[in-house]
Amino acid sequence: MKVLFQSADADAQASLDLLARQLPQAHFDLWPQAGGEAHDVAVCWKPPPGFFRGRRFRAIFNMGAGVDALLQDPELPAATPIFRLEDAGMAEQMEEYVAWAALGYLRNMDVYVRQQERAEWKQLDPRPRENFSIGIMGLGLLGQRVARYLHAMGFPVRGWNRSERGIDGVTCYAGEAGLSKFLTDTQMLVCMLPLTPETQGVLNAALLAQLPRGAYLVSIGRGLQLVEADLLDMLDSGHLAGALLDVMPQEPLPADHAFWRHPLITVTPHISAQTLMEASMRQIAEKIDAFMRGESVSGLIDRNKGY
User: ω before 249 within 30° of 0 (cis)?
Assistant: First the structure.
């Protein structure tokens, strides 16, 4: 078995070494040092232009949950199955990140940070948790895990998805018909949608205006889902009380960007669910092994849906 390995990360060789230890029977070539020989599978992350040119693979394994960058490559082989990374430690990180956001906003921690800057000592009443409704927009594998985690913490949790989902203890809505009902009583909106043509720019003025006044936004899906000017308008008008942004249209976020200095915006550098390389390479190795044995492999991408 021959594997072509590519990674946009700085230390691609270290990641390749981890994968090679899991698949001692395989021969590995590292892009771009690899020549023009044929390979059975590709393992890649945000491959550069030309990576697929003139190459055919039996399968492609994506080193992440999101495949939007991969699907935009015009030279991507049309019929080759693509498998994405599933969880590998990311769900637990997402649970922690959203819980931190929820508890921080529930207990007014963002307000206290601003008060400290003014040397202002003022106690605020905490919001009752049982009345603080959190809406998860996007109920894939990670979204479902976050919804269950918040429900276990005692929050009222709502979920919205393109197609029907059922989660114990979570009020679920689906499709265009259910979106307005989902938004109307959501006090903290958590966007966990994949990036597709339909979700690009989805966090816009029309959608955010349907949230109750004083709602809070947590954006951890993809940066291109947010219309930046609309968010700033919603914050400055007082319709939204604040926003926690972990993903940006341009990363790293430019130093002169308005988000850095806006008093109602908290920025984190795309860390809500970081790839744990050892666990990820172990999962990819298991998927490759199963695929080469002709077994069913989870994480298969539906190109029509974009995820």
Answer: no
pLDDT, tens digit, for every residue of 156-215? 999 999 999 999 999 999 999 999 999 999 999 999 999 999 999 999 999 999 999 999
Which residue is catalytic, options 151, 222, 239, 262?
222
Task: Return the exposure string of 208-218: e unless at least 16 CB atoms fall within 10 Å of the residue's CB, then b.
Answer: beebeeebbbb
Residue recorded with tokens 């230890």:
21
Q: Which domains does the chain have, with CATH numbers?
A: 2-88+275-292 (3.40.50.720), 90-267 (3.40.50.720)
Name residues whose C-beta falls within 8 Å of residue 259's C-beta, 6 or more positions apart in sequence. 228, 245, 248, 253, 265, 267
Please say if 158 is a catalytic residue.
no
Catalytic, out of 239, 257, 270, 282: 270
3-state secondary structure of 165: coil
- Token look-up 């599978």 returns 41
Residue in 15, 2, 90, 87 with CA at minimum distance from that of residue 45: 15
Catalytic status, residue 165: no
The answer to whether 213 and 238 are in contact (CB under 8 A) is yes
Global pTM reads 0.90
